[in-house]
Design a protein that fits this description.
- With 438 residues, this protein is mainly α.
- 66% of the residues lie in helices and 5% in strands.
- It has helices at 2-13, 15-34, 54-62, 78-93, 95-101, 105-133, 144-171, 176-186, 189-199, 205-227, 263-281, 287-295, 301-322, 325-334, 346-379, 384-387, 392-415; strands at 229-236, 239-241, 244-246, 249-256, 337-338.
- Strand 2 and strand 3 form a beta hairpin.
- Helix 11 (263-281) crosses helix 13.
- The longest helix has 34 residues, at 346-379.
- It is globular, with a radius of gyration of 24 Å.
Length: 438
């Protein structure tokens, strides 16, 4: 406890870090306040009770309830995320964007600018779809004017959220876009926790305590999955310059077990709602449509099996496009490094690809298990709002953002010669010598 208090004192003793923390809290407060500002022309008392369900329910969870509240931040930062995914795919398929990605900082700035521009048409289209989800009884004066004005307000709200995220990145602490998503998720935790405690009152507190222990273990498992790396040793040849001689150095290439992050879950989740939507649009009296609609409900075993398989497939796909063994091998060869026992060039590329393939399998399976845990928790009797925190996109995003923020705070502490945030040990995969930066 004394170590924790000392760390807090050290954090606030650094003026720059202190101001960044206050700036972050200020921007987050603005975002949360805007999440409760209802759109003009909408009666909040007539909105659907209980919030959104299905894919809209997941979206509402990521937005901290802004979607179901029909607020000016109803779509939040999600259209920007969609634009970012599109640009990521373009950097793989389009040579022009591939060239921009290799140009370093200037290329990244251009890609970010394209992402901002692409966000505008995406949010404009999504805002029209959002208006269709609002309860018709809650709209005071429906019509063309309401649709156009609401679409403009929602678009402006998303652009403002995007600006807030960039301000948090520049003036605050952590990645602003990820921070906004995390805050939206965390804002639902107190209500979900209280609701689960009240639901367990009739059956005693023991079940609730067991649920908290299981949740703690799941969080620890997600942290391990997020931090786990396979270190490939790299040896640099001895260099001689003039009278000085530099001895050989051994460093490591950290290959993450879960290099794809949360993206496989997002892609798989998007596809899993297609059968249900198609079944609802099909002939409702059809027996086949009824079976499909039943099978692809989140709590059905067919849904979870297909969902898990899609996550494993997308994990391999996204890892393959985000980690390039050929480029790593070429960078090693140019810098005079080599993997002990492996020839430079093609053999090194094949070795790295083999290691990556092996470690991706357990990472993909673990990611699939974590993704279906909320459904398993619901089947076990956990209330749906609280079950969302037992895994899936929400938990992985929260863990990733917290770890990233902790490492940024730690870097400030170490620059001022303070101890890190941990009493002993290091965050694995982040504090070791790295042979290559990506």
């Amino acid at each position: 406890m004394n170590k924790f208090i000392t760390t807090i004192k050290n954090i606030f003793a650094i003026e720059d870090l202190r101001m960044r923390i206050f700036n972050t809290l200020f921007f987050i407060a603005i975002y949360r306040l805007g999440s409760y500002v209802v759109l003009p022309g909408v009666d909040p008392t007539r909105l659907k009770q209980g919030g959104a369900t299905g894919v809209l329910g997941i979206l509402d969870t990521l937005l901290g309830g802004a979607f179901s509240h029909a607020s000016i931040f109803a779509l939040g930062i999600m259209p920007y995320i969609s634009a970012s995914i599109v640009l990521q795919l373009l950097t793989i398929a389009v040579p022009y964007f591939q060239k921009l990605q290799k140009e370093g900082e200037s290329g990244r700035k251009k890609i970010n600018q394209y992402t901002r521009v692409l966000t505008i048409p995406i949010v404009a289209l999504q805002s029209v779809g959002f208006i269709a989800t609002i309860n018709a009884d809650a709209i005071l004066n429906p019509g063309v004017f309401f649709t156009i004005s609401t679409a403009m307000i929602v678009t402006a709200g998303t652009l403002f959220c995007m600006w807030l995220g960039e301000k948090i990145t520049d003036k605050g602490i952590g990645n602003g876009i990820s921070m906004i998503i995390m805050i939206g998720i965390v804002s639902r935790l107190p209500g979900a926790l209280i609701g689960e405690a009240q639901a367990r009152t009739m059956r005693g507190s023991l079940v609730f305590l067991i649920e908290l222990v299981v949740l703690f273990l799941v969080v620890m498992a997600v942290i391990i999955l997020t931090q786990a790396v396979r270190q490939i040793p790299v040896q640099y040849a001895k260099q001689i310059g003039g009278a000085a001689s530099l001895s050989s150095q051994r460093q490591y290439i950290p290959m993450k077990v879960n290099a794809a992050g949360v993206m496989p879950i997002i892609f798989a989740q998007s596809l899993m709602f297609v059968p249900a939507i198609a079944a609802s649009a099909w002939n409702k009296d059809s027996e086949t449509a009824g079976l499909i609609g039943t099978w692809f409900q989140p709590n059905h075993w067919v849904y979870n099996v297909v969902f898990g398989l899609l996550i494993i497939i997308f994990t391999y796909f996204y890892t393959a496009i985000s980690v390039n063994p050929n480029q790593i091998a070429d960078d090693l060869k140019r810098s005079g490094g080599f993997i002990p026992g492996v020839k430079p060039g093609r053999d090194t590329s094949e070795y790295i690809d083999e290691v990556l393939t092996r470690i991706t399998l357990p990472g993909a399976v673990a990611l699939a298990v974590i993704a279906i845990l909320p459904s398993l928790a619901t089947v076990a009797g956990v209330t749906r709002p609280f079950a969302q925190f037992f895994g899936g996109t929400s938990l992985i995003i929260m863990v990733g953002v917290v770890l990233d923020t902790m490492n940024q705070v730690k870097s400030y502490l170490l620059m001022r010669h303070y101890d890190g945030m941990m009493k002993t040990g290091k965050e694995r995969g982040r504090s070791r010598n790295i042979a290559l930066a990506s």
